[in-house]
């Protein structure tokens, strides 16, 4: 397993990490994701560690804390072998102190996560969403206090916009606070919004991407096909409304390209989709999920080989999206383009 530095930090993380959203299985959304118990989870953790996958990601909101509890049970006795990443900020109840990233909420959320995970520290503690009601200064000061107390090692964010992340980094620099080193983001062949603003920001500011839903919310498994209804057992029947929107024609163009490359390489479609992501700028780790051992072993096959430049270019073209404002002049007009060299492929991305 390849290890990469997480942003500008000294923390090295595996190129593939395990997303524990399937652990616990409570509620309308997470109950449909999976209901892995502690015994099954321990087996999946065993397989991950054998493959060099040492980072495990969860969140307090996943199954109302059950995901953290199951993960804690699964890693019991081998805490020193794993990197724990968890998130907080989304509502855990209806009360005024059950959501957000205020000082009181962050401290309590951290203590609750430590208890559920059965550990004395969290390696990567992330804000699950931007809290517009809490001053950024308060958030950063609280996270610094948790670092000094030894309860967290590094901090990051998830689902922030460009201005929210940049403002936070600027305040951290101004006040001498620890900077965010990670941004957990949605990014896939059929969801490339990350490339327009967040990727250049991450590259220039040293914020590494931890990618969630690399298979486009389950659409890049090879089972979703042009002109066919969703397979009967697909979770999309119950969870599509929770996930990112997808342009169907672009989705099918991407699946067609994946089919061609699967024929050429002998690799499974999910492996190709994940391998493409691993080549992208700023991507430190891609989260893979699995409800069973077969899914996990298949996803682990995304590493240890490389797509050819031609195959990458074909996937790039299949999943390309029109540039939104203010980015389209930089792709369409030479004067604009000269001021902003491309990050990847063609154009300003």
How does this model look, in words?
- The protein has about 350 residues and is α/β, with parallel strands linked by helices.
- It has a single domain, classed as NADP-dependent oxidoreductase domain (TIM Barrel, Alpha-Beta Barrel).
- Helices cover about 40% and strands about 15% of the residues.
- The protein contains 14 helices and ten strands.
- The strands form two sheets. An eight-stranded parallel beta barrel has the order 3-4-5-6-7-8-9-10, surrounded by five helices. A two-stranded antiparallel sheet has the order 1-2.
- Strand 5 (about 85-90), helix 4 and strand 6 form a beta-alpha-beta unit.
- Helix 2 (about 40-50) runs parallel beside helix 11, helix 3 packs across helix 4 (about 105-115) and helix 9 packs antiparallel against helix 12.
- The model is unreliable at about 345-349 (pLDDT under 50).
Keywords:
349 residues; alpha/beta; TIM Barrel; 8-stranded parallel β-barrel; two-stranded antiparallel ribbon; 14 helices; 10 strands; globular
Short description:
This protein has 14 helices and ten strands.
In N-to-C order, the SSE pattern is EEEHHEHEHEHEHEHEHHHEHHHH
What is the domain tally? Answer: 1
CATH class: Alpha Beta
- Percent strand equals 5-15%
The CATH fourth-level homologous superfamily:
NADP-dependent oxidoreductase domain
- What is the distance, rounded to the nearest whole angstrom, between the alpha carbons of the first and last residues? 28 Å
User: What is the level-2 CATH architecture name?
Assistant: Alpha-Beta Barrel
Name the overall outline.
globular
The largest sheet has its strands arranged as: 3-4-5-6-7-8-9-10
- Give the proportion of residues in helices: 25-40%
Count all strands and give the number.
Answer: 10
Largest sheet: 8 strands, parallel, barrel
Low-confidence stretches: 345-349
């Amino acid at each position: 397993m390849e290890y990469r530095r997480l942003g500008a930090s000294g923390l090295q993380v595996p190129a593939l990490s395990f997303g524990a959203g399937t652990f616990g299985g409570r509620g309308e959304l997470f109950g449909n994701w999976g209901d892995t118990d502690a015994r099954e989870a321990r087996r999946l953790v065993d397989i991950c560690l054998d493959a060099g996958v040492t980072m495990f990601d969860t969140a307090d909101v996943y199954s109302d804390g059950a995901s953290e509890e199951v993960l804690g049970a699964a890693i019991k006795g081998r805490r020193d072998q794993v990197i724990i990443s968890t998130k907080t900020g989304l509502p855990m109840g209806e009360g005024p102190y059950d959501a957000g990233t205020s000082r009181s909420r962050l401290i309590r959320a951290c203590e609750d996560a430590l208890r559920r995970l059965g550990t004395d520290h969290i390696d990567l503690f992330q804000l699950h969403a931007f809290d517009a009601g809490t001053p950024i200064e308060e958030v950063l000061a609280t996270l610094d206090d948790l670092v000094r107390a030894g309860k967290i090692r590094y901090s990051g964010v998830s689902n922030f916009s460009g201005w929210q992340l940049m403002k936070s980094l600027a305040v951290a620099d101004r006040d001498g606070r620890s900077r965010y080193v990670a941004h957990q983001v949605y990014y896939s062949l059929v969801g490339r919004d990350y490339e327009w603003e967040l990727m250049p920001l991450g590259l220039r500011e040293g914020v590494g991407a931890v990618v969630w839903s690399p298979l486009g919310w389950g659409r890049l498994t090879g089972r979703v096909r042009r002109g066919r209804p969703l397979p009967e057992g697909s979770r999309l029947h119950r969870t599509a409304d929770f996930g990112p929107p997808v342009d169907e024609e672009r989705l099918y163009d991407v699946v067609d390209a994946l089919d061609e490359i699967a024929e050429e390489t002998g690799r499974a479609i999910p492996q190709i989709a994940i391998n493409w992501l691993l080549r992208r700028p700023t991507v430190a780790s891609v989260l893979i999920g699995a409800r069973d051992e077969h899914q996990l072993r298949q996803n682990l096959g995304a590493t240890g080989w490389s797509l050819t430049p031609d195959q990458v270019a074909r996937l790039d073209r299949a999943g390309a999206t029109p540039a939104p404002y203010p980015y389209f002049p930089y792709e369409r007009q030479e004067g604009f383009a000269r001021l902003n060299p491309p990050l990847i492929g063609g154009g300003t991305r």
